[in-house]
Amino acid sequence: MQDPITKTNIRSLDHSELQKLLTDLGQPSFRVKQIEEWLWEKNAHDFDEMTNLPKTLREALKERCTLGGVSVIARQLSGDGSRKYLLRFSDGVSVECVGMPSRGRLTVCASTQAGCGMGCAFCATGAAGLTRSLSSSEIYEQVMHVRDDFGSRVTSVVMMGQGEPFANYDATLAALRKLNSPDGAGIGARHLTVSTCGVIPNIIRFSKEPEQFTLAISLHSAVQSTRNMLMPHVKRYSLLRLYDAMGEYVDRTGRRPTYEYALIKGINDSDGELGALCDFCRDNLAHVNIIQLNAVKGSRFAPVSEARAQEFVRALNKVGVEATIRNSRGADIDAACGQLRQNYDK
């Protein structure tokens, strides 16, 4: 008995690989463009949707390929209009993503890994560990799923979901390029943001990419001992090295990075921590995003008051650093990264 043919996820093929597949099937080259439009712009879920392809080609593609795709394990709606999803891929691995509408715009927060290996102390995802990295098409599919569910064009994407994007650099960059491409989602490069814990070699690598993608750094403390406690897997990348790398990034790109700072009561909200943050950011091109921590069930970390967050903003502004408090979205659902996966994917 012959072994069944292992089908290829057609979304995993790059342009040249898709060309080769169609050449093997005896198809003209213009079919590649047609199929790519169905995959990346229209987000087809079935080969039979590809109505401008001959039926014989659609049948041949069904025999050799799958369209990947996701199934929805959970979908939560917030009173502010945000929607959070737990999506499962064909191998059973699940990830979270979020759609956040605002004033005619739609932002998607996408994951780059299933779980995370960075072990940040306050992160629900980090507590579960890393399952595997996602492919570029799996990252892209999250955005398209949110787009289709809202029935609205995605205007910006932040790679701030589960995982460390720079621990999955090649797939993350490929997804960004597909999201940016006019043959993909067509989102402007400056509306595509990557958030990293501070993996310095790939910050430098990212600074050399030709696109004007945006960079955010999960800082959370400018005191080395505090940061080591909160983010143990990046302590080999010291704050001094990070400071120098970010200076190189700004010099090379001319772009303003964002520093993310989740205020945690009794941990990084003291006057000493505030002074260190001001010293780290002053005289640099930077924006500080103060985040009021989501309360996570069972966590030993608690958020600070709105008044204390405002004090951080005023102090940073006083030394010439642009700072804002991030508008917390989805606070009435399992908003923190990893919460939905913990609750449903067991």
Protein traits:
346 residues; alpha/beta; 10-stranded mixed sheet; two-stranded parallel sheet; 14 strands
Descriptive notes:
A ten-stranded mixed β-sheet has the order 3-4-5-6-9-10-11-12-13-14. It has a two-stranded parallel ribbon with strand order 1-2. The chain is elongated, with a radius of gyration of 21 Å. The protein is built from twelve helices and 14 strands. It is α/β, with parallel strands linked by helices and 346 residues long. Helix 5 (136-150) crosses helix 6 and helix 7 (200-207) runs parallel beside helix 9.
Strands, helices and their partners?
Blueprint: E1 8-9, H1 15-24, H2 30-41, H3 55-64, E2 65-66, E3 71-77, E4 83-88, E5 94-102, E6 105-109, E7 113-115, H4 124-128, E8 130-133, H5 136-150, E9 156-159, H6 169-180, E10 192-196, H7 200-207, E11 214-218, H8 224-230, H9 239-253, E12 258-263, H10 271-281, E13 287-292, H11 306-318, E14 322-325, H12 339-344
Parallel strand pairs: 1-2, 6-9, 9-10, 10-11, 11-12, 12-13, 13-14
Antiparallel strand pairs: 3-4, 4-5, 5-6, 7-8
Strand content: 15-25%
Assembly type of the chains comes to: single chain
By DSSP (H or I, 4+ residues per run), the number of helices equals 12
**Proportion of helical residues:** 25-40%
Distance between the termini: 37 Å
User: What's the story with the biggest beta sheet?
Assistant: 10 strands, mixed
> Secondary-structure element sequence?
EHHHEEEEEEHEHEHEHEHHEHEHEH
General shape: elongated
Strand sequence of the main sheet, in spatial order?
A: 3-4-5-6-9-10-11-12-13-14
Q: Structural class, please?
A: alpha/beta
Number of E strands = 14
On the 0-100 scale, what is the average pLDDT?
A: 92
Kindly provide the radius of gyration, computed on alpha-carbon positions and rounded to a whole number of angstroms. Answer: 21 Å
Low-confidence stretches: none
